[in-house]
Amino acid sequence: MSDFEELKKQVRKLQSRAGTAKMELHDLAEDLPVNWAEIMAVAERTFHAFAELDAAKKEFAASEDSR
Questions:
Q1: pLDDT score at 2
Q2: Which keywords does UniProt give here (predicted)?
Q3: How far apart are CA 44 and CA 55, in angstroms?
Q4: Helix (H) or strand (E) holding 31
Q5: What are the residue ranges of helices labelled H in 1-67?
Q6: Whether pLDDT at 26 is above 90
C-alpha cells in the first residue's frame, strides 16, 4: 500500500476515533451533574483525538498536493 493510501486510512481511523470521543463528551454533558468529575478526562481525550486528526489531515493534504 502506498504512503498516500496509508495516510488516507489513518485519517479515516482518526475521524472515527474523534467522532467517538465527541459523542462521549456530548453524552457526559447531557447527563450533568452526574459524573461531573469525569469532565476533564473526557475533554482531554477528545482534545487529543481532534489534535491527532488535525495533524493527520494536514499531512494527508500535503501528501495529496505533492502527488
A1: 83
A2: Nitrogen fixation, Plasmid
A3: 16
A4: none
A5: 3-30, 39-65
A6: yes
Mean pLDDT calculated for residue range 12-33: 98
Homologous superfamily assigned to 3-65: Helix hairpin bin (1.10.287.660)
Name the residue ranges covered by the structural domains of the chain: 3-65
Q: What are the phi and psi torsion angles at 35 (to 5°)?
A: 60, 30
pLDDT of residue 65: 83
* Cα 28–Cα 57–Cα 10 angle in degrees, nearest 5: 80
* Angstrom distance (rounded) from CA 57 to CA 3: 14
Of 27, 19, 24, nearest to 53 by C-alpha is 19
